[in-house]
Amino acid sequence: MIFKTACLLTGGDPSKLELFVNNRTRLTGEVTVSSSKNAILPILAASLLTDEEVQIDRVPSIKDVIIITELIHNLGSGIEKKENKIIFRAAQVGTSPDYELVRQIRASFLVAGPLLARHGAIKIALPGGCAIGTRPIDLHLKGFRALGAGIGLSGGNVIASSSGLKGNHIYLDFPSVGATENIMMAAALAKGTTYIENAALEPEVVDLANFINTMGGRISGAGRNVIRIEGVKRLHGSHYTAIADRIEAGTYMVAAAATGGDITIKNVIPEHVKAVTAKLIESGAQVAEGRDKIRVKRDGAIKPLYLKTLPYPGFPTDMQAQFMAYLSCADGSSVITESVFENRFMHVPELSRMGAKIKAESRTAIIKGVKELSGTRVKATDLRAGAALLIGALMAKGTSIISNSEHIDRGYENIVDKLNGLGADIYRQEEESRH
Ligand code: EPU
Predict the structure, then answer these.
(1) What's the pTM value of the predicted model, to 2 decimals?
(2) Which of 143, 309, 348, 363 has the fewest Cβ atoms nearer than 10 Å?
(3) What pLDDT sits at residue 48?
């Protein structure tokens, strides 16, 4: 079955929905984590590196995946969907992704590397900033230039072309996840060998390298500071399943601790959530690791923490907001410093509306623990801020209403069902029907 519109994946557009979260809930039971959003997005983009069939299993039904799938389809790739598997066949694809789709998701810039490698050309809208910061793409472009591409900027578009990419040494000033992935994809089909120095170490980068290697790529060193990519003439089809989502896992871990609950999270790679585990233990929670599961419980007070976000294996920026919600009820004052993004405290005023005492200045927030939060109307401004509000709402007394909940659906598969399966009382209602 070839699908034409994104909604066929979900059976409906979840936007314009408010989440109603009732009263304090102690979460208990088991929950299974889906495939990683941030691994699968570049993997789907990398399906453009070959004209053969690529099958991806266990594709999560989340908004960001739906948008990038639609973007790849719109470029001309054949797409077949069977349950949670997607088969791509990019026999012939264009070089100019649809602006309306590109502007919806920053990760769409990840098609630039594969298209440049395969066709020697791309015209794509500049991704622009988003709620969490300006998020430039200078390092992606630096990498493409080093591989021999000519880059121009015109009318809000990036126009890149090359008569054949050539391997080179590329030093990244910052270990950017997206730049490492884009350069790795472009270099996979370049002539000669590329070395990415000061590369991102994130597990999602390693997963992308593993996926490209199943297509016949020759990438080594992913997960270390220097990645070596020996370009090959062509890549072939593949059948792959992305790694489990460490941020989804971490979010449920924090939700368990925040609600004084006791839950087992299945389909986790414990190594990938080490920083979250360490901080939860420091805060007084108990964490037991199995081979592919983790149990988290807490019954004592929440101890305050000092926490600073860093590139992997440091504490993930994608878990910062959820920890802030948790620490808002700690027994004392915590300090959180955000060092990866310049504007990732959008959840602060919303948590404050629930009664949290947070003072944020520049990249540091001081969270003075309060006895309890109170349910009220709040607004999700981005994906992880939304997850933080859900955690705050589960801890709060009374009902919370979270508007703009479509942000949460960008990255968490079936989050309402999963939390309700752990004892929460959450339901959705269309925003329009209330007014
Ligand atoms: N940066 C530059 N120049 C560049 C690229 C990045 O200055 O060319 C800066 C960014 O502005 C930012 C920092 O470097 O301040 C980190 O950006 P990075 O490129 O590492 O992040 P990304 O690839 O844009 C991915 C995830 C994010 C996650 C970050 C950091 C995907 C699709 N997104 O973004 O995920 O926060 O890495 O780990 O993989 C999320 O899931 O909520 C999310 C935002």
Answers:
(1) 0.95
(2) 363
(3) 97
